Amino acid sequence: MRGREDEEVTAFVRARYGPLVRTAFLLCGDRGKAEDLVQTTLAKTVVAWPRLRRSEGIDHYVQRVLVNTFVTWRRRRSWWEQPLGRLVDSQARDEYVGWSSGTCSAGRWTGCRRGSAPPSYCASTRTCPSRTRRRRWVVRWARSKVFHPGACRLCGSTGLRPTLLLNTRCAVHNPTELRDGLAELAEPVIPTEGYEGRIMRRADRLRARRRVAAGAAAAVCLAVLVTMVRVVGFGSTPQLAASPPDGPFLGWSAVGDVDAGLVRKATGVWDRTNSAGPHTAVRALVATHHPGFGSAVVVLQGYDEQGAARLAFFTGDSGAADALRMRVDRPAPDPVQTRVISLVSPRLTGAVGVVAKGTYVIAIAIAMPGVTAVRVSTTAVDDQMIQDPDGPTSRLVVERFPIEATAQTVTIAGFVKPKRPFAKATKVFEVPGEDGATGDVRAVPAEVVSRNGQQIVVAYPKDQVVRQGQLAVVAGGLVGRVTAVDAVRGQATVDLVTSNGFTGQVYTSISNVPGSVRGTGGQLVMEGIPADGDVYQTNRVVMPDPSQQSNQVGAVTIGRASADKAAGATTVELTPTADLAHLTTLSIMTPSAD
User: Fold this and answer.
1) CA 312 to CA 333: how far, in whole Å?
2) What confidence tens digit (pLDDT) does each residue in 486-495 have?
């Protein structure tokens, strides 16, 4: 400290030293310990002086530090040790320190009238002051800055510990002896020369220790933080390492236990169904009875008779005692780039190419090794019902979706979760579903090449067949309808759902309220709704796909109701679910070639 603060501390120490020593003596019962206690208290006060000098509670702070420091010292075992000049027994020790049953060292006692009671009890009077009165005497004496005859004094006998004034039933002599005792502390008590400098130096050492302690605490906190970053769940984004390919095939390990019987049956079905058999070098990715699906699921890789690498999906036929049926036979996917293979179709539970009555759309997905969780979702289900997986899943996932779902509306996402507590899963891929089961419609990919008002022109592969009236869709829903085709150039014109020329029959999902839609050149309106039909805000409205075999299978979402339909009304405005303003690619739904 320098300047004014130095002067303030010096003045404070000189003014408070005497009362603090008296209070400390009452606590300790020893003059030396009391002075050490005061010195430590003042050093702590000096350390906190910059913030104390702005407050009015300095005296209260000092008293509290004094008492707290005393309580801390008193808990030490060394506090109760009392050095003696020689080894003595219990009775001799009492006499050595002045605790005899006869007279104290000051010659004030003549014996104890209470028999074997220790000399801490009053032996000179027949009555003892109450505890409240004794405490009042002690506090008044300790806080008195100037001694006067009316103030209370403590007995100066070495056989009497001042702490007994507060803790025993009768620990003081009569008032006369109380006024005559401890005259040396009743006189003004002032610090010795250079005492303030020692306080300052001790405060500097205390500051240094606190800096070291703060640095050590900061180092510990930093070490804990680093440990949390490395162990608890933080760190770099996990990467998914590709499995080495097995020639032209996926080099993935099989999912779960492989049922050899199912592999033999599926291979036989594969050879009989496809004229390119028999198949060789067959290896299984999946061969199991899936409990959630309630049927067998088999996925095989192998060479056909011409030596081409193929991939086939097999599921059970619920109408034929779960006999295996081949659902799709594809060329083997890229063994390096592929992270997931899938099959999405409503034709996976019955006979080949047939949609079982009352069935769902089944999505089967198999992810590569290293993926800890797989999520299969569709826009045919409201977004609030789709959540990221909160725990690990199998690499094989089988999901059931509403009959309106298609491969174009299904999305498959893979997640990797580090093996660290509280670590979150990270999405490593997200791809659309794959179709191709026998009887499924075909999605012809197309790219937007130009736009003219409420019409767009798209380019598609020339080896594909596209006709007027077919629907153009994206994952979000219906984009429009093909109105013109240029087969030579491989281009088609699509009227958007909001164009003036767009019309069609629709119905609400789940509630099946019928109606028709009409584009108004920028908006979409549902008309012809029965007066008693209920359409509520955000209800999904779907349009049947003419390429499908029924109005329910693969129906495409065209929009959602913008508001509740008024009672008795027959129209309601819709909000398109597809993002018509940012179209780059889409799919044109064409009938199955099977």
Assistant:
1) 11
2) 999 999 999 9
